[in-house]
Amino acid sequence: MGDHDVTLASAIAVEARKAASLPLMWGWTLTEVVVATLVARALASSPIAAGSPGVLTQVPAYVMVVTIVGAVWLVVSEYTTRQVSRSLISVPSRARLLAAKAVVVTGWAVGTGWIALGLAWAASNASRGADVPPAILLGGVYLALMGLIAAALSVVLRGMIVSLTTALLLLVVAPPLVDALTTYGPWLPTIAGQRLLDSVVPSAAQQPAALTLAIWVIATSIGAATRFMRSDA
To answer: Distance (Å, rounded) from C-alpha 50 to C-alpha 93?
Structure first.
C-alpha cells in the first residue's frame, strides 16, 4: 500500500471511529460535562454572578484539566499499546496520519467543550430567554486548543507521566504563578486564551493574545510533526 492510497478524509474517518470506540473518550466527555455543570452552578450561586452569562468565561479554567488529561491519555496510549504501529499500517503516510489524529483530538475537544459549556449555561440559570452567548463558542475552541497543545507535547514526549506533568505545569500550574510574579504571563497560552474569553467582543486589544495563542499551537504542532516524522513508531 502506498502513501497515497489513503486520503486524509479516510484517515480522519478511521481515527474518529477508533476514538469513538474507546471508553476513555466518553469518560472524558462525561467528566467534563459534570465538572462544567457543577462549577457553573457554584459560580452562579454568587450574588454577583447569579444569572449572568459571564460565569461561562470562568468555567473553562476549571474543566481544562479534564481536556488536558483526555488529550494526553489518548495520544500516549497509542504508544504504550503499540496502536500507533497498527495505525501506520492502515495509513502509511505519517503526515496524513498525524493530521487525522490532530483533527480528531481537536474536534472531540471542541465538541465536548460546547456540550459541557452549553449545559453549564443552562445549569447557571443564565439561559432563560437569552441568546447563546459567544463565551460558549469561544470556550469550546479555547479548550480544544489547550487539548491540541497537550496532545502535541505528548507526541514529543510519549511517556504518560512526563507528558501529563509537562502539560499540566505549562497550562495549569505555571500560568497563574508567572502572571502574578512577573510580566510574562500574557505570553503563556492559557493566560492569552483567558484574556480572549474575558473579552468576547472582538477588539484590537485581543490581537496580541490571539497571536500568542497561535504561536503556541503552531510551535508545539511543529515539534510534534518533527518528532513523529523522524522517529520510529
So the answer is: 52
